[in-house]
Amino acid sequence: MISLIVHGGAWDIPDAEIDAHRKGCLHTLKTGWNTLRSGGTAIDAVEQAIRTMENDPTFDAGYGSHLNLIGRVELDASIMSGKTLRCGAVAAVQRIRNPISLARKILAESEHILFVGDGAERFAKEHGCELCKPEELITKREFDRWESLKLRKNFKTKEAFSKPKRPSDTVGAVALDKDGNVCAGTSTGGTMNKYPGRIGDSPLIGCGTYADNETGGVSTTGWGEAMIKVVMAKTVIDLMEINGGHPQEAAMKGIEILHRKVDGFGGVIVMNKHGKCGVSYNTPRMARAYINAKMAEPFVAI
Ligand code: ASP
């Protein structure tokens, strides 16, 4: 059963932004679904879906990402194939318009997994990924947010998830294709006002992203420091492995562990190897959408 699930972040999404999140999730789902339906691979679908969200300024990924402490956008992304367990990831890149596509190139064409800094850009140039000027990733909305925050000396990353109305629109997708291959990916501008060079869970395999054809796939969003401590994505995969493949149960247990052990906040999307999906979050809202071959209409909820 081909299947696709996407998310666009977990936080206290304000009423005024619900429509943009709903439209963004649905548009993304359609893009990835067209790929899957026309026989494309799970990797193609995940890359296409996440590219769409990176190009949509609604979300904290690619264009429109949050600015760090010194007013720059630094992007993180990862992608993993459940068939081969190959993966690719980039962190803190400043001139890559679509980090998920660079991550995919790394998955496909490099013996390495995670690139940062000059080396990431060098690899991008060598492999035909589009580079941009750092300022081309900045929107007025994010610049204004940063202006209002940078004067606040005591801003803590955790507040982005535990306090109301602090945005965190990381994006992610998990897909199952007609050959039974799973892929998961995640892309983010990270947390607002983060320290330069700070890297969250999203580009870390096992924390923000995991896929294994024997079990399924996971993408996470939320307070990255907490997600890393509990190795969130792989934890949820392991839970699904021992619970007989129930994605919803694994998602809920994963969020319970996140909260109980490290006082963490966030959300997860999960798919099992048969294309069945689960979602759990302990933030006020989470943007997500999914569809599979048995559904006449996509499901979308914020
Ligand atoms: N997990 C991301 C990070 O900590 C942020 C998010 O999901 O909104 O970088």
Strand-residue fraction? 15-25%
Shape: globular
Total count of domains = 1
Mean pLDDT score: 94
**Helix and strand element order:** EHHEEHEHHHEEEEHHHEEEE
CATH C-level class: Alpha Beta
**Can you identify the CATH superfamily?**
(Glycosyl)asparaginase
Order of adjacent strands in the largest pleated sheet: 4-3-2-6-5-1-11-12
- What is the CATH architecture term? 4-Layer Sandwich
| Most strands sheet | 8 strands, mixed
Number of DSSP strand runs: 12
Structure description:
The protein is an alpha+beta fold and 302 residues long. It has one domain: 4-Layer Sandwich (Glutamine Phosphoribosylpyrophosphate, subunit 1, domain 1), CATH 3.60.20.30. The chain has helices spanning 15-37, 42-54, 99-109, 117-126, 140-149, 159-162, 224-229, 232-242, 247-262, and strands spanning 3-11, 75-81, 87-93, 114-116, 171-176, 182-188, 209-212, 216-222, 266-272, 277-281, 285-292, 299-301. It has an 8-stranded mixed β-sheet with strand order 4-3-2-6-5-1-11-12. A 4-stranded antiparallel β-sheet has the order 7-8-9-10. Strand 2 and strand 3 (87-93) form a beta hairpin. The chain is globular. The chain starts with a strand and ends with a strand. 57% of the residues are buried. The model has no long low-confidence stretch (mean pLDDT 94). The structure holds aspartic acid (ASP). The site of aspartic acid (ASP) has 14 residues, from strand 8 and helix 7.
